Amino acid sequence: MKNTILVFITSNVSRAAEPTQVLVDIQSPEARQSGLKQTSVISCENILTVVQGDILRTIGHLPDTLMQRADLALKESLALT
Predict the structure, then answer these.
(1) CATH class of 3-77
(2) pLDDT per residue as tens, the chain (81 positions)
(3) Which of 23, 29, 37, 66 could form a disulfide with 16 if both were Cys (CB 3.0 to 4.6 A apart)?
(4) What's this model's pTM, rounded to 2 decimal places?
């Protein structure tokens, strides 16, 4: 049984400047690759673990540059930095 770690993505960008958040500005080339339809924030404060088989579909994929920023936000959230 494999697990996947999930975090929330929201269109509420009011907290985008916080170190546990990653802004995905749909105007940027990297964000357009994500599959998101509007500017959003990856919120790395609330972390979930689910069984991969419970995931019904994938709506997009973060390019490496955004995933690296999400990794840093997760480290901040978990106090690993």
Answers:
(1) mainly beta
(2) 799 999 999 999 999 999 999 999 999 998 999 989 999 999 999 999 999 999 999 888 899 999 999 999 999 999 997
(3) 23
(4) 0.87
